[in-house]
Design goal:
It is built from 6 helices and 15 strands. It is of the alpha+beta class and 325 residues long. The N terminus is likely disordered.
Length: 325
């Protein structure tokens, strides 16, 4: 098929797609750029260019299948875009001021400040736990093992095939990703160091045995030359109901996204928010990130993968292209 023939087919298809004229024209221009001949190239598509065109056409298909389900709502909706009855709106209730007990040696505020400073360091592939105990009680906090991926290939190496990796839209650049890690449930964390600070805080560091590291989530930002950004979060989850906040100014839609069992698009004055979810073929059992729970609740069993994509300026079809197979 020649470029002229494919363009004619796509123009005919776009005519019936539920898209604004400006978006139709933008898609055609993107297709033209993706399929433009290079110098000396014969009048046919190279395989990678044809793939690009098919991906774009698939995105248009996704949007044409989108059904507007809700508008003028104020409250919460589920993954199907249906209002959730009886789900309370978020409210802010001031907590009563409580003075710490006079005999308390270490305040919670001091502990929180210490934890914030300790965890505000470059990522390390070790689980860090900080705790303290005293006569009037105690507290514990932990930071899961983390890693940074500077490229998609590094991200793929850390994540594997459990979660769908992003497809970078044309004109955008992948900068880096934060990846959170956990220990496989059939192994166990290894205590590598323990120390107690002058304040009485106990710091324990746990390593994951070689070959037993599993990515639980990752986050990254995509950016183009115009400064537009796309925020993406992906993580293992549980088979449970989720509720999404909407206002009267939002339009709620449910795109049909290949590979995803549920998809929800919320478009409003603050931009586009896309939520996707699919079920894992088998549950993944991992150690929890809270060592103080290991004696009675050591593992989490994840059953789903959830994706969140958001931008204040980037169109919905571009967001859909990031995780559409």
């Amino acid at each position: 098929m020649t470029e002229k023939q494919l363009r004619a087919h796509l123009q005919a298809y776009l005519a019936s797609a539920d898209l604004p004229d400006s978006r139709k024209q933008a898609l055609l221009q993107q297709i033209s750029a993706a399929t433009a001949k290079e110098k000396g190239e014969p009048n046919m598509f190279r395989p990678n260019k044809l793939h690009t065109v098919l991906v774009i056409a698939a995105i248009v298909t996704l949007l044409s299948l989108t059904v507007a389900l809700a508008a003028g709502l104020s409250g919460y909706v589920d993954y199907k875009g249906k209002p959730v009855e009886g789900y309370p709106l978020a409210t802010t209730t001031p907590l009563p001021t409580q003075e710490p007990a006079p005999t308390q040696e270490v305040t919670q505020e001091a502990f929180d400040a210490f934890v914030t400073e300790l965890f505000n360091v470059p990522p390390t592939e070790q689980l860090i736990e900080v705790s303290f105990t005293q006569e009037n009680g105690g507290s514990s906090s932990s930071m899961p093992a983390r890693a940074v991926a500077d490229s998609l290939s590094e991200l793929e190496e850390l994540v594997g095939t459990t979660m769908v990796l992003p497809t970078i839209p044309e004109g955008f650049v992948f900068e880096y990703a934060w990846v959170y890690l956990a220990c496989d449930g059939d192994s166990a964390y290894e205590l590598v160091s323990e120390e107690t600070t002058p304040e009485g805080f106990c710091i324990r560091r746990y390593a994951i045995p070689e070959g037993k590291t599993v990515a639980t989530s990752f986050s990254f930002v995509l950016r183009n030359a115009a400064g537009e950004t796309i925020l993406c979060d992906v993580g293992l989850g549980f088979e449970s109901d989720r509720h999404f906040r909407v206002t009267e100014a939002d339009e709620v839609q449910t795109p049909a996204v290949p590979g995803m069992e549920e998809a929800l698009l919320i478009a409003g004055d603050d931009g586009n928010h896309l939520y996707l979810r699919h079920t894992l073929e088998a549950p993944i059992k991992l150690w929890t990130d809270f060592p103080d729970c290991w004696d009675w609740f050591p593992h989490d069993a994840y059953t789903t993968v959830e994706y969140s994509v958001a931008s204040t300026t980037v169109p919905a079809d571009v967001l859909l292209s990031i995780f559409a197979k």
